[in-house]
From TrEMBL, chains A, B:
<dbReference type="Pfam" id="PF06089">
    <property type="entry name" value="Asparaginase_II"/>
</dbReference>
<protein>
    <recommendedName>
        <fullName>Asparaginase</fullName>
    </recommendedName>
</protein>
<dbReference type="InterPro" id="IPR010349">
    <property type="entry name" value="Asparaginase_II"/>
</dbReference>
Length: 325, 325
């Protein structure tokens, strides 16, 4: 799917799977193996946030669209994200120590360097998943459930699994433990594309799960900066799009897109787990569909990024493999 | 070649090429495509250092075995490496500003954090290739050549290309510009394995190039810490080996090994460029050959590393694909 060039050579190559599904769960287009079993990692966050909305917890705690966007975010731990998560925790009577996700250094350069200079240790609020976890805590409080909300048998995770199986249309064959210690349920490439098409077409249906899905997609589209951060692929590609779309990365080369105006959902997995390739391939698919313009500088930055060396010299580039997309 | 597991799933997969050659340039064993054209990146440093020795420059400047090891190193910019490069530069009447490699932050954690706290900018001496470049500068001085020693037409680079083609046994089809701005010549997987077998069997021959190769291999084996650094794969695997071997990583998933006692050379390229996979696959090949013990903790650390999340919890592992090695 993706080539990494240096001088006269495609020095490294990335293969992968991708599926585009419509609202009937039919595969519109596919690359690689649509039945490959995968872990969607953080690309599943809008599914993990579904019980928060569908349960009534979001409304019981009057969650703003900003907080709904954060519940679906892999944010970079910039001051804007950290402050919003801290306020949300305070509003539900919880604190940083209630978060089960581990501590992660900020990916905001100024904050990261400032914390090193001040000998400040990274906290859990800075974890890219802290919004998702604050959503889990909100649902936990709403349900009056125990503190161990990442246990696969906890009511929150049982609700997540049920929502996941509902929108993917498949029983999950199992789960891995994610970077933030939450269970991450497995499905197939087509199952994940079907789930994203469920979100893309949710506005056409009136059931509770669909109405909840619409609110999450709209929140992501309304707040692209909260979903990721400055300079991040999800944020910049959502902002650059010709139409409202939700785009979400996941670890190990996962990526999804939700296209409400077309009723299409997209799942993408780079087999070797490389983010440089998943960003390039997702941009290529969205350019092919006309959702993104190849010449837009923020699109070009992910579709065809330059590789620079320590001296700042351009030594190569990443590009979609010819004839694939 | 390599699987990355999380819970019940091989979440990501890495494919690659590997070749083992003997001193006659014959392929003893191969995986993938032995004729794949590659850039060996920093795995070619002992070839880029060959003209330094063969020209007489190393002896003219009385280079120690430590300096010969540094000329083949991708060091981590720890104080031990930086001090040694600075002394070498002073001894040849050159300074940091004569190095063409760009500045790189130290990979030594304490030094890196200390420099951030002191608002110190990374310098060129800290670049992982600064030993190679100081070798280039030494040869440049010896030849009375111009300052632009990374120009492909500079006498130093013409000598590197000539040495490269001699030991690989092939005309190079071209070059890319490396992370340190030096040309990196292309060859095939078998060409690179043949070159490493040339080094492994150099002690059996008396010609100038072979005698120079022996000195570089012996320097690498004598100073594994200078070749990479504390906790690094090259250093730890050389130290853990049952016999004297030189092991050297390169960017984008490249790796080589030189086995003098067996007269064998090994080249390895992970197709997607992932270091986690090249370290695992090189360890697997050396375990299979009996050069490394799978149960040695420093070997296990690269052969079968645990993946831990932000909370320190083990969430998966990297392992050689079954039945491959």
């Amino acid at each position: 799917m993706v080539e990494v060039w240096r001088g006269p050579l495609a020095e490294s190559l990335h293969a992968g799977h991708a599926v585009i599904c419509d609202g009937n769960g039919e595969i519109v287009e596919a690359w690689g193996d649509p039945e490959a079993v995968i872990l969607p990692r953080s690309s599943a966050k809008m599914i993990q946030a579904l019980p928060l909305v569908a349960s009534g917890a979001a409304d019981a705690f009057s969650l703003s669209t900003e907080r709904l966007a954060l519940s679906c975010a892999s944010h970079e731990g910039a001051p804007v994200h950290n402050a919003a998560v801290r306020e949300w925790l305070a509003d539900i009577g919880r604190s940083e120590s209630d978060l089960i996700c581990g501590p992660q250094p900020s990916r905001d350069k100024a904050l990261k360097l400032g914390m090193i200079r001040d000998h400040e240790e990274p906290g859990r609020v800075l974890n890219n998943c802290s919004g998702k976890h604050t959503g889990f805590l909100t649902l936990t409080r709403h349900l009056g459930a125990g503190a161990d909300y990442c246990d696969p048998d906890h009511p929150v995770q049982r609700a997540c699994r049920s929502a996941f199986e509902e929108v993917t249309g498949l029983e999950s064959p199992g789960f891995g433990i994610d970077g933030c210690s939450a269970p991450n349920f497995a499905t197939t490439m087509s199952g994940m594309a079907r789930a994203m098409a469920f979100y893309a077409t949710a506005g056409q249906r009136g059931d509770l799960l669909s109405r909840s899905a619409v609110r999450l997609v709209e929140a992501m589209i309304a707040h692209p900066l909260l979903v990721a951060g400055e300079g991040r692929a999800c944020t910049l590609l959502m902002q650059a799009a010709n139409e409202p779309v939700a785009i979400k990365t996941g670890a190990e080369g996962y990526f999804i897109a939700i296209l409400p105006e077309r009723g299409l959902g997209i799942s993408l997995k780079i087999a070797d787990g490389a983010t440089r390739a998943s960003e390039c391939a997702m941009a290529a698919i969205l350019v092919r569909l006309g959702v993104l313009e190849a010449e837009h500088p923020d699109v070009k930055h992910f579709l065809n990024p330059e590789i620079r060396n320590w001296d700042g010299r351009v030594t190569g580039s990443v590009r979609p493999a010819p004839g694939v997309f």
